[in-house]
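FORM 12-B: Structure-to-Sequence Request
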């Protein structure tokens, strides 16, 4: 079995927004194409060569098995070395990608008084009232400047979308600003596609790597349970807009836009964007390397939950965002991210995966470490990200597990000048 695609698209169609209303709201909000930054004039030498998985080669069914095995071999190298890879031809057209970037831009065009009415974490669902979602994980806007780097307020706009796999909750039980509400169907389509098509295929490749029957990981850890909101994988989508920063900001933060960290969830899917700013840290040398831009690709990284679930076989990537190089410094860094989580009640315990491969490698659960569910882990990690002071940990363990919330940064050499790396 390579799993059957859930019939999510026809169900989603029932929630289509009236096109006339959508057009009116788009006009009112000056909906327009997002202007991407020009390519960097000079590429630094310390660029990481990420594995690019071409998903046009991913065919379902027995006849596609050889192709899937090849993709799995490619993926295994990436996820065991640094936890980062790209997916090319992931199934969404450039037109839809462009629309998502325009929607992200429009979401942050809302005036301050509207943004204050939809601060993330302030309108949680009754089911989530005990969950410490805060301004970083709740549905809505993170207040601009919430985080501090060396005491300097951040310049990053965030809008989170929770529960997009639960259509009634997403469309009817969650509060949104007018612009977002009028475009919810397009937003839901994008994020559902990433979860139900792209993530499902990645999970199948992970099955092959771990010598599990194809479909196992998606079924056990990622399948959507339509009637069970709190027992379904509860990741979230995010629009993200990094605003240009001043010279003063760059000096005082050592050129940090977002400090080094590992993500808390399972897998993170980011739309590739042209500003040269995302860096990944080499696990052995600790050297930072730039991730290059591939138009139309998804940049994907392994996060803490999959690291734990695989007993450390998959690496939770350490990454950060540095400020834009000179020829891109006046542009916005605009992207959409999906932070996936595994099913909240699942234990992050490698023994439960029952992987013949990991067993052969001698990877078993460390019994000296208390077992945690994905939900418990998510809440613990969320505390890092909700903390205002972004520069307070060198490295940390949470209940005996390695994780990075925010790295203290030293001076970063200017972009375009090599750091002595290759
Ligand atoms: Fe991240």
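FORM 12-B RESPONSE
SEQUENCE OUT:
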């Amino acid at each position: 079995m390579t799993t059957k695609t859930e019939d999510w698209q026809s169900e989603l169609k029932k929630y289509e927004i009236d096109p006339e209303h959508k057009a009116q709201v788009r006009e009112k909000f000056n909906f327009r194409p997002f202007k991407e930054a020009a390519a960097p004039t000079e590429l630094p030498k310390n660029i990481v060569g990420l594995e690019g998985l071409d998903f046009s080669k991913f065919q379902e069914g027995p006849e596609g098995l050889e192709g899937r095995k090849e993709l799995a071999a490619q993926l295994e190298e990436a996820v065991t070395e640094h936890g980062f890879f790209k997916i090319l031809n992931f199934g969404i057209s450039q037109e839809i990608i462009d629309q998502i970037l325009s929607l992200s831009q429009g979401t942050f065009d809302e005036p301050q008084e509207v943004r204050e009415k939809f601060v993330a974490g302030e309108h949680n669902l009754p089911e989530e009232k005990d969950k410490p979602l805060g301004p970083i994980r709740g549905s809505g806007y993170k207040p601009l400047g919430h985080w501090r780097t060396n005491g300097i307020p951040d310049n990053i706009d965030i809008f989170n979308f929770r529960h997009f796999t639960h259509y009634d909750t997403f469309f009817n039980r969650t509060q949104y600003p007018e612009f977002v509400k009028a475009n919810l169907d397009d937003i839901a389509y994008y994020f559902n596609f990433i979860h139900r098509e792209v993530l499902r295929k990645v999970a199948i490749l992970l099955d092959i790597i771990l010598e599990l029957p194809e479909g196992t990981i998606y079924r056990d850890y990622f399948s959507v349970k339509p009637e069970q909101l709190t027992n379904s994988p509860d990741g979230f989508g995010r629009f993200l807009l990094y605003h240009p920063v001043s010279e003063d900001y760059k000096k005082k933060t050592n050129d940090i836009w977002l400090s080094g960290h590992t993500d808390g969830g399972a897998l993170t899917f980011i739309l590739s964007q042209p500003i040269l700013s995302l860096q990944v840290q080499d696990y052995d040398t600790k050297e930072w390397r730039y991730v290059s831009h591939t138009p139309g690709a998804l940049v994907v990284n392994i996060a803490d939950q999959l690291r734990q679930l695989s007993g450390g076989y998959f690496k939770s990537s350490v990454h950060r965002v540095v400020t834009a190089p000179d020829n891109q410094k006046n542009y916005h860094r605009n992207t959409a991210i999906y932070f996936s989580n595994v099913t909240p009640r699942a234990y992050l315990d490698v023994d439960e995966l029952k992987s013949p491969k990991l067993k052969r490698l001698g990877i078993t659960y460390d019994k000296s470490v208390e077992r945690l569910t994905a939900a418990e882990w998510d809440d613990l990690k969320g505390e890092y990200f909700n903390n205002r002071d972004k520069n307070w940990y060198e490295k940390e363990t949470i209940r005996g597990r390695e994780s990075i919330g925010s790295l203290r940064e030293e001076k970063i050499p200017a972009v375009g000048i090599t750091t002595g790396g290759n």
